[in-house]
Description:
By secondary structure, the protein is of the alpha/beta class. The protein has helices spanning 3-24, 53-56, 58-61, 65-73, 100-113, 143-161, 177-195, 210-223, 232-257, 268-273, 276-286, 321-334, 349-359, 362-368, 404-410, 413-420, 432-436, 443-463, 482-492, 494-504, 508-527, 535-559; strands at 38-39, 49-51, 83-89, 93-98, 127-131, 165-172, 264-267, 290-293, 296-299, 310-313, 339-345, 375-380, 383-387, 390-391, 428-431. A hairpin with a 2-residue loop joins strand 13 (383-387) and strand 14 (390-391). The mean pLDDT is 94.
Amino acid sequence: MNLIESAKNQIIELLSAACEQARVAGVLPEGGELRGSIEVPRDPTHGDYAATHAMSMAKEMRLPPRKIAEALTANIDLNGTYFKAISIAGAGFINFAVSSNWYSDVLKAVEKMGTDYGCVDVGNGKKVMVEFVSANPTGPMTIGNARGGVLGDTLASVFEKAGYSVWREFLINDAGNQIDVFGKSINARYMQLCLGEDKVEFPEDGYHGDDIKELAKIMFDKHGNKLQELSEEERIKIFVEFGVPHNVALMKEHLERYRIKYDEWFSESSIHKSKYIDETVALLDNAGLLYEKDGALWLRNTDLGGEKDEVMRKSNGFFTYYAMDISYHRNKLDRGFDQAIAIWGADHHGHAIRLMTTMTSPKLCEALNIDGSRLHCLLMQMMRIVRDGETVKVSKRTGKALTLSDLLDEISVDACRFFFNARPDSHLDFDIELAVRQDSENPVYYVQYAHARICSLIENLASEGYDVPTVKEITTELLVMEPEQELMKQISALPEEIILAVRDMDPSRINRYVTELASRFHKFYNFCKIKGAKRGLLMARLKLADTTRMTIKTCLELLGVDAPEKM
């Protein structure tokens, strides 16, 4: 239940009925459509909602806005509504102040829905794919993967909360030149183990990480030097067939530790094996969108709105990443997704813009029989790990480049997920010292402490004979202090935040919402005495505290963060 939407809808109904009555009475002229917006006033003394309809209709009615506002308010009956008072401000704003009926329904909504509170059905079951992380299986998960992981996973959770059927997908980049280099790198390290490091030259463009040495050591321990009897081509094939699944298994392990699970790990090589790229290229060729030059096959991307034409197939016969990306995004839509969202890093900025320009061009959409407007690419900004004001590049434990696994050995999953989900469109400095602090400066601790504080309060009051009541058992009219009402207003905003997070594809709205919710709770707790209050007021405040607890828990679940009962 969206109580903000319900209140706004009721205002529209009241204004519409009042306008009709005023016209019947001859106070307002006939004709014209009731229109205007409903806003939340910056100054809370002006009420909870402000309608602009009197000003929006003034020109058409040829009357001063204030006179229209007076005519409307004179014909509004607030009995049985969500509102206790109505007033006119400024040039003609019509202000509404909510009553205890509305606050009561906020508490009832959370009581009825529990952790489902905040669910809205704007998605109507439409299928949405969120593709995120999608790292090359040539090395360990990086810190950049860590940020993309939580952003994608939380965005998927937000879409689920909004009534969509969500599919989480990881694209395994297990084809192309990087896999060939990966195999050659393992081969070189293996041969160095067999013949001596100074006897085998390492590829100039090879992967130099210690993880490659570890893979070679595993193969040497298993096979000894027998593989050196094979041809280099045969060895590389064996090393790729071993190394890729091995690294993918580690990726799955580390991401599951990070509380991320996928519906599918989609293999890029499957696109190649199925001849899907060949089919896509043939469709583009049949539409006259390709041409040959210098032995390569080119896409007429300038005809599609791009700044330059793109190579689709190299002169050596291998398809390019551009051909693969077009085919993969076409495949997403062919699988029946109503929306397909990809989370990419800022280092892919130029490629993402070019690709989305291509995929949304009418000519290409017609050639591939797709609706490119259903594709979305979200770019997250870069991040760095900071300790004592200095950038951290290596793990304290291993002395090697800092990976996701290393980070989770030092920082809690809760802190990583909460911090990394903040403001994806901004550069992020992740302060390790702040992430482990146990005070109000650490936002995840601040929110979790609010939840634990409420749990302790409930436990203590239960020992004194005060169990959390139902809404029917309390007098909502007793909750009249500003911190109480501001807390209930924040609780009421969660469904609206879900809608906006989906609209903007911005999961960080949940961070900001729950942090503000915790802030309002701490203010309520400090200013509104619960223990020691008269029973009726104590029970009402206890119910409000428990409602806050449930809402905080719901938000933390969306973020993939624990809601501890004790801290």
